[in-house]
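Postdoc handover notes: sequence design on the structure in folder B. Input tokens:
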């Protein structure tokens, strides 16, 4: 079955589809774009708004590193700066390499530097994503009371809220009805991974830092909306805070499907489509999307490159080691005792 699956889905197919989608989006966005009209408008944005957008975007990942440390505090200890470094190396990898290997790379670095088992660290990343999903849906619902939205976005948000509720219920059931949950889990082909995930979540959730990291996720999300808002003010788009929050939700959801590194193309198309929902002209929306992409991407390249240099490792070797780590983990899984330490 494994062989036929590989034949049916070549390893190059997903990256090619991602690049194809991104190129198509770039063509759709920049076809008939009036550079002569919009480029002076881009250059006229006050530097104070650009600086505010850059600083808040950098702060996003500093807060993420802080939150990650809080999550892992019950099972391991590492300086916050190290966690931030791992995150920026992962972000830099996502900007350059297909299939977004950055999550695995930052997990690998955190596990190597802290001594915490890989399975536990990857569990913390799963928890981060659950926190993000909860706050993202909450912010969307709050913003929807102040912004009139297309029905498709409302329906989509309700579907996501339902999925998150189901996942949260399953995790709570597995934690508080552990014996029954284990009997069901052991019947699945992913039993070992699920059990280690539960061990890690149980160890983390017993600490006050778990709930502080959940609260900190609200700041993490708010900081992501800040560059969108600052640049919209500097670009004279007239977007409200609620509309910027909706645009952030659109961008986060749009980043899920396969696409080119750095979300090139799809990011531009999503920003243009999102901004136009609020009455902004297409030409102005494209100019704003261009500026937003540059402002939040270029600093990430710079800081990510410096973070990678500090590891004294090559990105290609780091990617290979990180990809081999899950295989090592499955071949020699840690015991429940090590996961809960």
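Designed sequence:
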């Amino acid at each position: 079955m494994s062989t036929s699956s590989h034949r049916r889905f070549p390893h190059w197919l997903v990256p090619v589809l991602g690049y194809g989608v991104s190129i198509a989006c770039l063509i759709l966005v920049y076809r008939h774009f009036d550079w002569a009209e919009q480029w002076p408008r881009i250059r006229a944005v006050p530097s104070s708004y650009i600086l505010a957008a850059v600083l808040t975007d950098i702060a996003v990942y500093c807060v993420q590193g802080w939150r990650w440390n809080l999550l892992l505090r019950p099972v391991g200890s590492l300086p916050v700066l190290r966690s931030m470094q791992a995150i920026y190396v992962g972000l830099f990898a996502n900007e350059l390499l297909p299939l977004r290997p950055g999550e695995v790379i930052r997990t690998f670095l955190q596990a190597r530097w802290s001594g915490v088992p890989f399975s536990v660290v990857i569990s913390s990343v799963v928890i981060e994503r659950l926190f993000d999903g909860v706050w993202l849906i909450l912010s969307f619902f709050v913003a929807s009371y102040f912004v009139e939205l297309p029905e498709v976005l409302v329906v989509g948000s309700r579907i996501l809220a339902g999925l998150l509720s189901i996942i949260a219920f399953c995790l709570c059931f597995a934690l508080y009805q552990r014996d029954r949950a284990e009997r069901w889990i052991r019947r699945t082909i992913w039993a070992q991974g699920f059990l280690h995930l539960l061990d890690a979540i149980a160890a983390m959730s017993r600490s006050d830092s778990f709930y502080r990291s959940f609260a900190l996720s609200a700041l993490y999300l708010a900081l992501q909306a800040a560059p969108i808002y600052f640049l919209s003010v500097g670009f004279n788009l007239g977007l409200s805070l609620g509309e910027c929050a909706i645009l952030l939700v659109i961008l986060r959801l749009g980043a899920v499907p396969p696409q080119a590194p750095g979300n090139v193309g799809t990011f531009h198309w999503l920003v243009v489509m999102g901004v136009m929902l609020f009455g902004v002209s297409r030409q102005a929306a494209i100019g704003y999307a261009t500026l937003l992409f540059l402002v939040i991407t270029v600093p990430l390249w710079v800081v990510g490159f410096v973070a990678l240099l500090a590891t004294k490792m090559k990105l290609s070797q780091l990617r290979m080691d990180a990809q081999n780590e899950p295989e090592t983990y499955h071949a020699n899984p840690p015991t429940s005792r090590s996961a809960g330490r």
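Context for whoever picks this up: Residues 282-311 form the longest helix (30 residues). Don't rerun without checking with the PI first.
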